[in-house]
Every structure is written in structure tokens, then in C-alpha cells.
Amino acid sequence: QVQLGESGGGLVQPGGSLRLSCAASGSIFSINTMGWYRQAPGKQRELVATITSGGTSNYASSVKGRFTISRDNAKNTVYLQMNSLKPEDTAVYYCNAYVRTGTSTPVYLYWGQGTQVTVSS
Questions:
Q1: Which of 21, 80, 91, 96 has the fewest C-beta atoms lying within 10 Å of its C-beta?
Q2: Nearest 10 degrees: Cα torsion 107, 50, 16, 9
Q3: How far apart are CA 21 and CA 9, in angstroms?
Q4: What is the per-residue pLDDT for 56?
Q5: Spatial separation of the C-alpha atoms in residues 29 and 114, rounded to whole Å
Q6: In degrees rounded to 5, what are phi and psi of residue 15?
Q7: What is the mean pLDDT of the chain?
Q8: How far is Cα 79 from Cα 95, in angstroms, rounded to an integer?
Q9: Cα(2)–Cα(47) distance, rounded to whole angstroms?
Q10: Which residue spans within the chain are E strands per DSSP?
Q11: Which string of b and e fits 108-120 if b means at least 16 CB within 10 Å?
């Protein structure tokens, strides 16, 4: 009913940049907060950044100043611009979104499949 499609992952050298995209599709009435999480090998999934429908963003301290989250409400898409990438940024990145599918339905959280980001020389 609702799917999140992620793209933009890949290999990049330290100091490089990468831009991730996540587009929601399906039966969508409205989308509230969208965000990005990541999971490195052997570690738990952690929050990277979130952005509300009004454009208010929050970042993990480890990425603040390097990453920028943004969204295009007309396209139901959230982006993550990643600059000055470090090896410790290597992880599978997942997007999520709180989506309402109707005017009288509650909001549910949906997750993308994840996209691999590898930072190495």
C-alpha cells in the first residue's frame, strides 16, 4: 500500500560526498515526519536525521555540520546530502516516514529497504 524507495548509495572515498533519496509511493494522504537511520556492521541501528512536515530538522551529533536532510513534499521525497564523509559513516542507510493513507486513518511508520554506503580509500 505504501512503499519507500531508496537510492543514491554506493562507494565513496573519505572526504567525498553522496546524496541519498527516498521517495514514498502508494496510497498516501499525508506524510508527517521523515527520517534517515543507519546500521553499521556489528552495531545497532541509530538515528541520523529527521525532518518534520514543516521543515524542522534534527541531527545526530556525529553528522551535524556534514549532513543535510531536506524534503520535497510535492514529490513525497526526503533527501540526505552527505558531505565530508568518513569511514565511520559506512553503514546501511534506511529511510522512514510516518504516513497517513486516509483522512480518518491513523499514522503508521514505514521503512525503506536500505541502501549501502561505503566510505573507504
A1: 21
A2: -10
A3: 9
A4: 98
A5: 24
A6: 90, -10
A7: 97
A8: 9
A9: 22
A10: 2-7, 10-12, 18-26, 30-39, 46-51, 57-59, 67-72, 77-82, 91-100, 108-111, 115-119
A11: eebebebbebbbe
**Residue position matching grid coordinates 521517495:** 23
DSSP helix/strand/coil, 18: strand
pLDDT of residue 88: 97
Residues found in the chain: 121
* Model pLDDT for residues 31-74, shown as the tens digit of each residue: 999 999 999 999 999 999 999 999 999 999 999 999 999 999 99
Which pLDDT score is estimated for 110? 98
